[in-house]
Each structure stands twice: as C-alpha cells, then as structure tokens.
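From the shared-data thread, chain only:
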Amino acid sequence: MRTRHLKALVSLASQSGRPLFTVPTGSMTPTLRAGDLVAVERCAANGLCRGDIVVFERAGALWAHRLLGRGPGGRLYVKGDAALGADDPVREDEVLGRASYAVRGGRRINLSGTWARAKGLLVGAAYPVARAPLAGARALGRKIVGSRGAVRVAIGGARLEIIAMGPDLRGLVYEVAGANQTRRRGADLRVVLRRADRLPEAVSPGGARRDGGALLVWGPDFRARIDPARGLCEAGLSNNAGAEAVSCVIRNAATECASRAGRAVLHASCALRGGMAYVFAGASGTGKTTCAGLLPESDKVLDDLVFVGLARGRAAVFASPDFGREGGGLAGGPVPVGGVLVLAAAEEDDRPACERLTGAAAAAALCALPGPAADSGGAVSALGAAAELASRVDVVRLRFGLTGGELDAVVSGLAAELDLSGTRG
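Structure, as tokens:
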C-alpha cells in the first residue's frame, strides 16, 4: 500500500508541474532527511516568504534551505535547519522555487503554509543548539545572519576552526560536520580550505606521509598539510572536489589532533544503547557494521571512525560526524563506553563465541586493531594508550558471524556488570 501511495504522490507531483528531487544531505534535519523526495513549487524570489524552504542551484548542485530574511540587492539569507550559521546569501537568479511537500516512507509531509513556516523557523533555531550543547544557553534566541566567519566544530574531543574560502566550500563543510558545530571560542587546529586550479603532483592517488612534525595527506582531488605545532592545516581542493574531499581533510585534521591528545582513533562502528556506547572493532570484513546494525534496541551512530578517550576519569566515545555515511554521527558530549567488542576474522572461527580479554591480552587486542586507512584519507592512529584504555573498559573478542540474539546477550551481560559495579575506572 505504501508503494502504491508513493507512486500516486510522484504521479501527482508530475501532473501538477512540481518536479521532485532527492535531498542529498542531512543539513535540513529534522525537517528533511537525506533521501527524502521533495516537490518543488516554481516561484520567483520575490514570491517567497520568511520560513519557506528555498530551493536553489549553486555550484551545479540543488539545495533546499530555510529562508531567514532578505538583504541588499534582493539577496536571501538562508540556512539548513541543522546548522548553527547561515549560508552565503542566495542571489535571485539562483532561486528555483520553494519546497511544497516531501515524501518519506510513502507518506506526504507538508512544507508550505503559515504553520509549516512558523514551525520550521522554531525548529531551525532550537535544533542545532540541542544537537550541540557546547553552544551554551547564550546561543538561544541569537539572530543568525549571513557571516563569512569561520565554522567551529568539535570532533573527537578536538576543536577545529574551519575557514572555507568560498560559499560552495562552506556549504560542503556544513554538509560534512554541520551537526558538530560549537560556538565555543579557541581551537586546537585552524583548517583553511581553498579551491585550486592546479594541484601538485602526487606519487599515488591517495595516501599520507610524515614531513618532519607535519602530516601530508592527499587524494585524487585534494592536497593537505597538517602541522599541529603551528596549529594549522592548509588544504587545496580541485574545482570539482566535493563533500568527500572536504570530509577527508576534516577527518585527517581531527584524527591528528585526537591522536596527539592520547585518544584512540579506531576504524570501527559504534552503537548506542541504554546511554552507553558499544564499539565494534576489527579488521575489514569481520562484520563491524553488520554487528552494530544487528544489536537490538540500539542506534548505530558511527560507521567509520570512532574516537575513544578519557572523559571525567572514564572511557568515552567523543562526538564526531559519521564519515562513513550521510546523515549519521554523534553530536553533544562524550558518551561512556559500555564495552569494546573485537570481531575475530573468519579464519579464526574456531574461537569461543565470546571471550573476555583482560590485562596484557586486552591491550594487545586493542593495539592490533587497524587504524584509519591512509589511502581513504585517514591519518595513522595513535594507540599508545592501549593499556590505559584496556584497564578502563571491558574488552570482549567475538566470533565471526554472531546473530542478533547472541550480540544482545553479550551486551546485556556487560550492561548488567556496569549496573552492579558502578562507574568503571
């Protein structure tokens, strides 16, 4: 029935002359989600009202962001509902129309009208603050205007100040790390992003190497130099580089800062359950993503990099975008770790289904975990504090191919131990 309903809505949109497009990112969360279909009602810029979702074209891509007000020369101030700051002003000739309604899961969500506009403005003001508690109470009620200032984000316990030289780059920064913005001043690293007509030659399509105290990272469409001693990361991106290149630069900068601060950066998946974070780690192909998704009554939030360190004397997973998929990520304060579950490889399937590791064995298992791959834009992870981490969390080795019920039993056992013993460490 939902399929028939969806086809009917798509047909209705086509007959009414309202084209549909797919929302590519989570910048309008919670109003719109990545993958939603949006019907566009064509209208000129002067026919838009404050609170409308403006559909406009910029840098060869379609955007749908909330209208906050108007500026000189008829320019429009817009922002995504999930962002703390506004985009660069939209020109009248970039406007295609307004979002009329969205289709999600076979149901229609109204986006036009007085009530929808008022509700959208309220959500756009409150949601980013709720998603980024570090913004503080001072951010409540503050008027958001078009600004060319830096975008400040907190990732993996590190504070980055990202300066995007160009409106399209700033939009990509919001797309990658918008949910992790913070108004807290000061930064561990300043990241400068620029477009470049020509990039220096690289020895391979992607990789990383040390150059003294700096880290050089490159990909097919970007080159970056991260120098923590100077507190600076400079990156050049080709003119056709998109969100993936920006994501690679940001993840490398955050990884380098977190590693130097003694936090572990794991190529892992993370699921939240009962206010605790459960980290599924292991070599590629061991089923990290599958296990995090199979865990009952949980929410998988990270599926690529997981930043683990100490917060208030206990092991915790720090906030980060989900560099492995769109629309995910962990915002807000650190979440206590309920356990690190190390997945055994398929050839080690003769091991016990669940094996508790302690002491040197737990530290060795953590040290053996792979860090982020350099050829995918990840810096080498520092796991020198593995022994300290192993003493603060439960480390369990799991057999390859466990079912959801078996995972549920393991995690329930860890949670029960936490309830009995209280705060570990």
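The CA atoms of residues 392 and 425 lie 5 Å apart.
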